[in-house]
Write the structure tokens for this entry.
Amino acid sequence: MVAPFRFEHLHTDPTGARRGRFHTPHGSVETPIFMPVGTAATVKAMTTGELTTIGAQIILANTYHLFLRPGHGLIKKMGGVHRFMNWDGPLLTDSGGYQVFSLGDLRTLSEEGAAFRSNIDGSKQFLSPEIAIEIQEALGADIIMQLDECPPHPATREYLARSLEMSLRWGKRCKEARHKEPDGKALFGIMQGGMDESLRRLSAAGLVDEGYDGYAMGGLSVGEPKEMMAEVLSYAPNLLPADKPRYLMGVGRPEDLVMAVQAGVDMFDCVMPTRNARNGQLFTRRGAFNIKRHENRESDQPVDPHCGCDTCRHYSRAYLRHLFINKEILGHRLMTQHNLAFYLDLMNNMRQAIQKDQFGPFQRSFYQAQAGEGSGAWGWRQD
Amino acid sequence: MVAPFRFEHLHTDPTGARRGRFHTPHGSVETPIFMPVGTAATVKAMTTGELTTIGAQIILANTYHLFLRPGHGLIKKMGGVHRFMNWDGPLLTDSGGYQVFSLGDLRTLSEEGAAFRSNIDGSKQFLSPEIAIEIQEALGADIIMQLDECPPHPATREYLARSLEMSLRWGKRCKEARHKEPDGKALFGIMQGGMDESLRRLSAAGLVDEGYDGYAMGGLSVGEPKEMMAEVLSYAPNLLPADKPRYLMGVGRPEDLVMAVQAGVDMFDCVMPTRNARNGQLFTRRGAFNIKRHENRESDQPVDPHCGCDTCRHYSRAYLRHLFINKEILGHRLMTQHNLAFYLDLMNNMRQAIQKDQFGPFQRSFYQAQAGEGSGAWGWRQD
């Protein structure tokens, strides 16, 4: 008998930030949490051993990419994503919808699903709620996402309303398509509704009525101004049940994570730490900078003196800049490692602050340090 | 007082293969040895910690590349190549000559040295024996190579004769330019003479007359047929003193290393294991193959079942093929790690075989396994 997916809401800080824990067949996860993105069954440039070392608890893989190449049939045959990529912790897969809808003219949407052409070989493909579930089950995900439509921004209220209704029906079909025997895995519904509060309410009510193991917020970080996302986050998380995990998809910059945690969000994923590392951008307690900058040329300083990752313990900015300019693979590795360590350490600090009812002081300390004020450490701790 | 560079000739097997050990300011090295190439102060795709894990004892860095970018002045300021790249083992640098002479029309040679244009920014540069020493000392090399001319193949006897005489004079100038205080570091002379035995003798005699801490053989693996290299190796190593290390530069394939060790060579370097890994070619006990091959698509087998490297312990050929096809950095990492582990393990096996007077049986076992015969293990051991 497999234990069912379960979320414990452990604590709420005076600011509204939540501490929690969820349990999957591949282990437990402390929330709030950031999930490194392993698009093609690899978190780019990293081994899974390194992910564990820097504190990754759960990773994400992309259904769209794995469906097209190497195919979920092959991955299933190889023992699922876990065995394929040598990761034995919890795994979340998206539904593939976001990537398909990003294809623009290459896809056609209907009630049945989305017909599209592969961006790899131009072949005709089809994604429906049922197929999205079949793929994610073949991949072996611990957390499965419903297929939904993620509308562009801006979109008309009418479009958003029709779209979210279809996403609700797709969610229902996903639920029906799920493996019938208890397997301990979770199915998450996804709230849509753009920047419109009444539509967000409608979407949330529909999802809650159906009932899911967890709830995601989609349709944010899709090009809207920062203030608009902040506004949606001021009400949207609390439209969702307090006893289930809340996942803000595709977000975001460090300051977005801090804001969203205060708003009651538990889970995040974003390619920013990995992708930006490959473009030379490094995140630190005193803000982000690009390693290419001339001032790093002769700097024997680490990226972030308050960071304990291997990159910061063993390598200078001058060396990283040299590697980056020479397009050396090791540069991508070391900078990715640091950025992910920074994100995971940020989440760890937030978890500790919430537990001690210190999220307010943590936030002030975080924003001060990001603005380059003070020592650069997050001086919130009241040990 | 720094201990001087020292070579111990420990044992000679009945085949002529040698076991030895040399001592540098950054530690000792057991020979015969393969040196991974860290061109731009990074063994491509690898951390120095991983190099240590797979048994690397000494690595090589390229003077030409580091001279042009980031410059030896910067590296000296950053504490030398060792501190810059976080490597605390022995380091050998080449003289930069080979790369300069490979520039073809971009360089002009004179008795004084080589004027050339940087392949990076077209700037005018100059390399002389004195400058080659200055750069290598700034880089902090434990083993410094003399500047020599590496003639192309084929070349006329007259050209080869004139060239090797100049290389002898350049070697003398390198020796004179060396740091005067004892620093425990070695200066190696380089034998030239193309495929001509009398010229090789002339070159060796000149070098031995001058006296170096070790001797390299240059001008091989420059496009000549395999049999020609074998012929030169049948006499060239033994033109050099038995009590100094012998280094065959830029060689080679696994079978070349086995042949050359039997001929009495102690040291090797080559980009083949690292570069070929990035092209998908993997070395195994049963010969080399390319990971792209269709038969690897659904293979849950490791690259080499007799290999104990992380890649072979944790990842299938199917996964490596998937990473390679998706141009994932992790693919380059894992395949580089395996190829280097294979080379280093091959050298380790050769050292053990020599020590036990079993190099003959080892060779037979090696060639059989490379031909795909037998279990694929090197079944020479007489434990």
Summary: The longest strand of chain B covers residues 6-12. The interface with chain A takes residues 40-42, 44-47, 49, 69-70, 74, 77-79, 84-86, 297-298, 300, 310, 314-316, 318-319, 322-323, 325-326, 328-330, 332-334 of chain B (CB under 8 Å). Chain B has two domains: 6-270, 277-370. The CA atoms of residues 40 and 69 of chain B lie 8 Å apart.
